[in-house]
């Protein structure tokens, strides 16, 4: 993967955060859930995905650099990771992890990029 893991790739058309909430999220091999929240903050942009019943309602944080496409017609965000990669990612718990640099380092390492 080229570029910063914590920024949207230049080829991805972004829309404001209020509009992405509720979009379906698709891994390279199928649907994984819906966007629960996201940020476009420079250098720490990411999505929080609610996986719903697929993996027992877990939430996962996906760095913006994993996004390959935002489809405005089908309300879908596509990422360059597999369902298993996302399923095995460290769970995101907002009360514990929001703003936690150690958690971000773990996520950055897990997805193969630098921490922020």
Radius of gyration: 13 Å
CATH topology: SH3 type barrels
CATH superfamily caption: PRC-barrel domain
**What's the total count of β strands?**
6
The computed structural class is alpha+beta
Distance between the terminal alpha carbons, to the nearest Å? 16 Å
Q: From the 3D coordinates, which CATH architecture would you assign?
A: Roll
Strand order of the largest sheet: 4-3-2-1-6-5
Helix content percent band: 10-25%
**β-sheet strand percentage:** 25-35%
Count of individual domains: 1
Mean pLDDT over all positions: 85
Largest sheet: 6 strands, mixed
Which stretches are poorly predicted, pLDDT < 50 over at least 5 residues?
none
Region (Disordered): 88-116
Biased composition (Basic and acidic residues): 88-105
Protein name: PRC-barrel domain containing protein
Organism: Streptomyces lavendulocolor
Task: Give the SSE layout.
Elements: H1 17-20, E1 24-27, E2 30-39, E3 46-50, E4 59-63, E5 67-71, E6 76-79, H2 83-87, H3 94-97, H4 101-110
Parallel strand pairs: 1-6
Antiparallel strand pairs: 1-2, 2-3, 3-4, 5-6
Considering the chains and any ligands shown, give keywords for the structure:
alpha+beta; PRC_barrel-like_sf; 116 residues; single chain; SH3 type barrels; PRC-barrel domain containing protein; Bac_photo_RC_H_C; six-stranded mixed β-sheet
